[in-house]
Amino acid sequence: MEALVLSDTHLRPDTLERLPREVWDLAEVADVILHAGDVVDVAVLHALADIAPVHAVLGNNDHGLRGELPEVLELELAGVKVAMVHDSGARAGRERRMARRFPQADVVVFGHSHDPVVMQVPDGPLLVNPGSPTQKRRQPVPTVAWLVLGSVPDARIIPVRTPA
Q: Strand order of the sheet with strand 107-109?
């Protein structure tokens, strides 16, 4: 199973065109889409769900989605235990903190910082922060992640171009 992993899209229905074409193309070939929060508007999730099943968590900017999205989500996909949360906390100590918080997880997906991360915690989960496809902040380019869910989960960061 392959997943498109997004976070921090910060889009509204009238700004959906800001989501790079590559994101829509990746969604078309993904088996599932994981969104780690800061969706901002449910229209984004509906547009993505028209392409593939979507699982999402509540971000700190998702004020209108309180009660619709969980703050934490734990699910099993293709036999892989995946945990999702928007904010993993400070960079320092993140690996141990996420391993303690989600002791059964094979993969922990998070966002918030807009800083892409793929890191295998020794004797713990694979940590995946896709960055942001729309607000690169301090990063050289906007990004998403591609997650392969199998006997050994693997992920990579994919740079995308923002529409002109």
A: 72-77, 80-85, 107-109, 126-129, 117-120
Token pair 């906390």 is found at 89
Shortest CA distance to 35 belongs to which of 17, 14, 20, 57?
Answer: 57
Mean pLDDT score, 7-13: 94
Task: Share the mean pLDDT of the chain.
Answer: 95
Own/partner long-range contacts of 11-18 (Cβ < 8 Å, ≥24 apart): 11/39, 11/40, 11/41, 11/44, 11/134, 12/40, 12/41, 12/43, 12/44, 13/41, 13/43, 16/43, 16/44, 16/47, 17/163, 18/134, 18/162, 18/163
